[in-house]
Amino acid sequence: MGNTGTFLMLLVSNLFLWENVSSAPINASEAALSDLKDLFDNATVISGKLAKLGTAMRKEFFINSFSSDMFNKFILDLHKSKEKIIKAFNSCHTVPINVPETVEDARKTSFEDFLKMVLHTLLAWKDPLKHLVTELSALPGCPYSILLKAKAIEAKNKDLLEYIVRIISMVNPAVKENEDYPIWTDLDSLQASDKETRLFGLYMFSFCLRMDLETVDSLVNFLQCLLLYDDVCYISQF
């Protein structure tokens, strides 16, 4: 999902400042548009909470004695070279979901395709989050506070997915929830008997999750902006 989280966030932030942005391709009755706006109101609230939870869980891994030593070791090691950082970003299983990396490409991306990016990201995390909760529950010494955050993220990911599916059904009923999306295949790392391997699995899991939840939040807010303000999207803070 792009090479760096910071770059992507700046990109999506810039999207809000377009002038003469293409209109959202929604031909619907006034009642249907009102329903869409209500759905987006709820979706943006949930996506915002999800992004905050992803950041909070990641942060707790760094400060809790359960994992802090190893997590700080991992991040210091990764930052020894740009190549390691790029490799870490590209190891996230959602990389195939190509969020536009230039304003020009984003201009060419339809409202529906942006919605599909959100849908595929949420679907891509549905099973991994279920596994995360299971593995943390069985992990000796895992702080309950981290497990609670994982459970909350799993629940809200499901909630947001339901809203996005409802939105898509109004925009284009032909798009189905069971469309192809990236499959996570790193369960072995969370189940490793070696503590360092297991914690590195959690390190990468929480890193990729936090980045994706921030991206989803940005995209959901951007889509709401297009729906509400059509040609120009301005915000005071992002």
TrEMBL record:
Q: Which residues form the signal peptide?
A: 1-23
Q: Where in the cell is it found?
A: Secreted
Q: Would the keyword GTP-binding turn up in this protein's UniProt record?
A: no
Q: What UniProt keywords are attached to this protein's entry?
A: Hormone, Secreted, Signal
Domain of life from the UniProt record: Eukaryota
InterPro entries (alphabetical): 4_helix_cytokine-like_core (IPR009079), Somatotropin/Prolactin (IPR001400), Somatotropin_CS (IPR018116)
Family stated for the protein in its record: Belongs to the somatotropin/prolactin family.
The molecule here is called Prolactin-7D1
